[in-house]
Design brief:
The structure is a homodimer of 445-residue chains. Chain A is of the alpha/beta class. The first copy, chain A, has two domains: 246 residues, nicotinate phosphoribosyltransferase (Alpha-Beta Barrel); 175 residues, TIM Barrel. Chain A contains 17 helices and 19 strands. In chain A, the strands form four sheets. Chain A has a seven-stranded antiparallel sheet. A six-stranded parallel sheet of chain A has the order 7-6-11-10-9-8. In chain A, β6, α8 and β7 form a beta-alpha-beta unit. In chain A, α8 packs across α9. The longest helix of chain A is centred in the first third of the chain and has 25 residues. The model of chain A has no long low-confidence stretch (mean pLDDT 95). At the A-B interface, α2, α4, α7, α8 and α9 of A face α2, α4, α7, α8 and α9 of B. Chains A, B: Pathway: Cofactor biosynthesis; NAD(+) biosynthesis; nicotinate D-ribonucleotide from nicotinate: step 1/1. Chains A, B: Its EC number is 6.3.4.21. Chains A, B: It comes from Bombiscardovia coagulans. Chains A, B: Keywords: Glycosyltransferase, Ligase, Phosphoprotein, Pyridine nucleotide biosynthesis, Transferase.
Chain lengths: 445, 445
């Protein structure tokens, strides 16, 4: 698979400095080896959203396996006096040996859903905070936006064309997250290569402008790619372009793309023109700053697929999920685990490790249940009928329990999102601002 | 310098597929070697913004130098039949040999400012579209947001703490862009290492929770980092934490951080308490979803520095600059250069290569001037007094004209932004929604 930087390079400095200085202080004061449980969750969904989609966990597991400071990283930490020499020795042998559980990739989440649970020593867990949050916050933001777009598209395929509107490597992750959210392909070649995603594309206006005529450009594209290709029709007059396209490609023209103007009206005109010219199989792809609302508004227009850019890769108004990574339980000086919580205003946390379930009635989800309590109480909890356990084990004592990062895992996540969403009340699919589709109920056992 | 993936790995697949299929068709029809000029600009600033800040160009020049498909990339392009075997041979020898001019990093830009101009054959220029836009769109979005925050902070330092709220590699670029926008440091260690940015940090709530008491945590942090460190005070009661902090660190406590609640009121209480306890030198850092408006609202509060996260790395509501890459001029079949433009509805382009200047009166900018015309007219244009030429040469015939990527270039860009902003009317600093501070005037010579 190779070239994902996060998955082939050391990820050990994709952190905030305080993670290393806390490690250093804890190693000196003897608390570094206290066992800890950290949890990742979001306090709220973005404004008006009904649900979120977990994505990034597979990438994250690989990134954690590559979290080993290189000699270069170590030299930097030493030269800048970020940690003491004692810590350097510890870091040279660092390898995450803890256990990670969490929601499946593609799982629906709600406020306070414990989407990830990281258990290990304080030292090994605290170093991962930023890496975990970077990956889950961005990937889940994109998957959550993608999922709304896919629902709005109501069966028509959505294609990721957003690379140009976000950081060059964020784009690669975004393509993967879009697939998990239900998209069907990506224009981004690095993502196509790394994750085995279908690569898609048409042509740019510059290709038409490069040629002495639009006809020359169409002829060239068809000679190179076959008549099944998609021609871009809005460089000059759309009507003339469509006529030329069918003349050049014949009735088996693959499709046309419209990238400007009133897309619904234009799609209708172009459909009628294509049909009149005998190209009734030619598909119409529309692009141009689409989001879930624009896609929904095109529901009655004869559009065959949507190319989505900016709004996909920027989370359609919510470019982060605002997930946090909080210590909920740690070993005390007597060796027993103690639930802990901060009491910061408006940001207080719920102490103790959680277990999480979704309850169903007549096959539809009714609530998210997040339970905390003593280890004994959690272990002996009798799971009611029609409650689904939401936590799976990603890593056990430092070893990944499965291949979480490849194409199969990505496609499994895509399926899981579709299944999980189909089990929510229909209000989940509403684009109107509203509350989470089901409530999150916190239980203390 | 090393480990920036974009700058040490092949960047050749950080593209959209159509760039390779257009290349393929153009190589087959003989237009691939036509000389072209592409320009990067944005049609409008984000809603209400007065100006933008160019960032990313230095990173981009390095990324273009690394744009050479690896054997692995070539195999992918062949296996997926994205290009023909003739194109594969061409790609194996690809090296950008063109010329790139553009606005300096740190330069202020407005709608239609030609922030980058790429000149070369169609083949070599078209491949770069997505990479150029990804880097400039994201980096400039962050620098533009940073610049507004720095103005609002009015001399108090702003620190990047945003890594956890964006893609893990986007975060590294964001830290660099924040510095160009006027920020003073970053919590992100990878960015600190790659770009020589001052690394900053305090401690997380988990560090306090890990210990048997808040006092234990403070003692540990001070023993590891010295009394000049910054202690986090809002895990439990802020008042008690501040008292403990001064007891433990003594009057030379470095500072405290407040991360929740009403930051203005709390800063005032904490300042008074610190002063009463004799710790009048201790600094107050505030964090918690700050943006330029929150920073401006804290102007009268006794705050010493701002830690900014989400809103910095997501461009404070504008996560992309919506820059586009458009063909404006190309060689005709007779060998002469021809201005070209698309006529798409609402997205028409202005034909021809541009030159760009900013005019001044009494040392204040009055307008952005974007001029097009025949090569002769442009060459003989008499630049009026008090017009500043905005274009510099980054690459000449495939060679970088300077070291555009290192720490010095980043700091020069930071200075340039400050200088360039100081030459704008004061309305540029307004956070109220409004038009661009100066108009962009398009001239045809």
């Amino acid at each position: 698979m190779s070239t994902n930087p996060t998955n082939s390079m050391s990820t050990a400095l994709l952190t905030d400095m305080y993670e290393y200085t806390m490690l250093d202080a804890a190693l000196q004061d003897g608390t570094a080896n206290r066992r800890c449980v950290f949890e990742v969750y979001t306090r709220r969904l973005p404004q008006g959203r009904r649900y979120g989609v977990v994505a990034g966990t597979g990438r994250l597991i690989e990134a954690i396996q590559n979290f080993q400071p290189s000699q270069d990283d170590i030299a930097f930490l030493a030269d800048r006096n970020i940690v003491s020499t004692a810590s350097i020795a510890w870091l040279e042998n660092y390898h995450f040996s803890g256990t990670i559980r969490g929601y499946r990739e593609g799982e629906i989440f709600f406020p306070n859903s414990p989407v990830l649970q990281v258990e290990g020593t304080f030292a090994e867990c605290t170093l991962l905070e930023t890496l975990i949050l970077s990956i889950l916050n961005y990937d889940s933001a994109v998957a959550s936006a993608a999922s709304r777009m896919v629902s709005a598209a109501n069966g028509r395929p959505c294609m990721d064309m957003g690379a140009r509107r976000t950081n060059e490597w964020a784009a690669v992750s975004a393509a993967r997250s879009a697939i998990i959210g239900g998209f069907s392909g990506t224009s981004n070649l690095q993502a196509a290569k790394m994750y085995g995603i279908p690569a898609i594309g048409t042509a740019a206006h510059c290709f038409t402008l490069l040629h002495d005529s639009e006809r020359d450009a169409f002829v060239s594209q068809i000679q190179a790619l076959g008549s099944n290709t998609t021609l871009l029709t809005d460089t000059y007059s759309i009507e003339e372009a469509v006529a030329t396209a069918v003349e050049v490609a014949g009735p088996h023209l693959g499709g046309v793309r419209i990238d400007s103007g009133d897309l619904a009206a234009l799609a209708q005109q172009v459909r009628n023109q294509l049909d009149a010219l005998g190209a009734s199989e030619a598909k119409i792809t529309v692009t141009n700053d689409l989001d879930e609302f624009a896609i929904a508004a095109l529901q009655n227009a004869p559009v065959d697929s949507y190319g989505v850019g900016t709004q996909l890769v920027t989370g359609s108004g919510a470019p982060t999920c605002s997930m946090v990574y909080k210590l909920v339980e740690r070993e005390g000086s007597d060796g027993n685990m103690i639930p802990v919580a901060k009491r910061s205003q408006n940001k207080a946390t719920v102490p103790g490790r959680k277990i999480a379930f979704r309850s169903y009635e007549y096959k539809l989800a009714t609530a998210e249940h997040v339970l905390s309590g003593s280890p004994g109480a959690l272990a002996s909890f009798q799971v009611p009928d029609n409650w689904r356990d939401l936590l799976v084990t990603y890593m056990l004592n430092g070893e990944a329990t499965n291949a979480w990062t490849g194409k199969e895992a990505m496609l499994a996540a895509r399926e899981h999102r579709a299944q999980s969403l189909s089990e929510l009340p229909l209000s989940a699919m509403s684009l109107m601002n509203g509350d989470p589709t089901i409530p999150t109920l916190e239980h203390i056992l």
